[in-house]
Fold:
Amino acid sequence: MKTLFALLLLTASAYGQSQVISKTPPPLAYLYDARVVSVLDGDTIKFDVSLGFNVWTHNQSVRLLEVYAPETKGGTQKDKDDAAKVKQFVEQQMSVAKKITIQTFKPDSRDLYGRYLAVVWVNDRNLNMLINDFMRDSGITPGGRGKK
Structure:
């Protein structure tokens, strides 16, 4: 009986410690199935998004988190050419997509322009990382905040 009591006490104290160590909850992630409406540029896509129970929201603008593709407007001709290459890469990825999942994080889920900030998963592959890898491998300099 003493052994059982000691085991219960040890388990309870270990449980209490794990609650104390983690002072903040993990960031909340939300997953949504989606269909592409259009690719606006290398880091912004419009989607129809499933909210579940056959409820959809349409034409939602999504900004790919931590992707800084060159801008299609302004800049040099090289910037515009690079922007077109990245947009074409994203369009190609979307054209072969059998399953698209949007992952958002609360509470900071929108940018200054009202676009949802998200990680987009295409066929269970992280599109955000694929774009960044494509830009790096192609020698394309990131635009916006991603400039070095």
User: Anything to note?
Assistant: The chain has three helices and six strands. Strands lie at 28-41, 44-52, 55-64, 100-106, 116-122, 125-126.
